[in-house]
Amino acid sequence: MRNQEWWLRALHVTTAWDSSRGSGVAVAVLGTGVDRGQADLAGAVITGPDYTHSGRLPGGQFWGSEGTAMATLVGGRGHGAGHAKGIIGIAPAARILSVRVTLEQDDPLLSDSGIAAGLPAAIAKGIRYAVRRGAGVIDVPLDPVTAPGSPGAGGSQAERAAVAYALRKHVVVVAPAGDITPGSSTGPVNFPAAYPGVISVGAFDSGFNKAPFSSRQPYVTLTAAGDGVIAAAGKTGYSQVSSTSAASAVVAGIAALIRAQFPRLTPAQVRRALTSSTGFRRAGGRASGSGSGTVDAQRALLAAARIGEAVPSAAAPAPAPPSQPAVKATGKSLRRTLTRNGIIAGGAFAAMVLLILGIAIRRRRRARAARLAPARQAGQPRRSAQTPPGVLAGGGIAPAAGASAGPGGPRASSGAGASAAGTGAAGAGAAGAG
Asked: 45, 53, 229, 331: most buried by Cβ count inside 10 Å?
């Protein structure tokens, strides 16, 4: 099973795991419900309320199929010895908060206008609940009703306001861009994907070809693996999934990796980290539904690291971010440390050089003075045996020891003593520089 998860290597998720696995982040999966008994999600799921008022119960035919599949893509942990069996999600250390806000696509109740009309309000309530419960990332579902004029189509003001509320609370909101009939021009506008600030995700296959069912709307933010991915089907089974919902789950997982490592980044900054680091960028991608290109987990973490360098301490109400991962760019703190250490080392080296030079100069001066001493002594006036002490030959008065003989006169102090005094000053200066 594990070798079928082609997107883990193709999107460099396995490399990104060296830095982050999503620990400490709760990803809210707003959908049809998540089965806590699914083997790969054991111990990872917190179950929230059901806002659909549909009467569907856990374990039933129309409860939790898609929601469980998406949860395994986000945060599956595998199972068995060493967790070697089953599905590993993008953020295997993240927690999953399940909130039921919509119906399965094949649920007959979707044709009930009373229930369908209330689903946008259910999504809005689910978003607010997830924010209150501390979710760092919210993966919202496909628009349950897209037919123009149908009850519930076109989103709602409550849904739009809930998305804005989540963004203000520094919660990242990710949504599938929408599934369309292959061959159609753009497909209908999908909500919540089209709301401002939402990271809207299209789908591609293992060859990085955009899926024929992926929305061509210009609001698409970027694309991710979503065509031919393996996800949970029931408690122990697995099946291939092709939808922009799957692609959205993949990006929600990558957003969790970023939030775990850089909790102070705002939703806009997380979005920028994702869009500025994409792999393949199609010319005219925004107009054709490819957005900024194909997501790359490793490069997104690198981009988040660079963005994080400029984030002020009060950017978000979160604890200080952990140390930079091995894959990311060097931070300001590291540069400051290196600069400070360089200055200290440079100063110590300069002091050592000055000290060595001072010692060498002093030794050279002493040696020179020693060599010149005989010549200087030979040049001093000699007293004759008849000359009284203190009187020079010729009648001059000899100066006291250490005093000057006056302008042009000889000095009684030796050149060696003067040289030594000058060297001692230079030596003191060198010692002071250290």
From this structure: 229
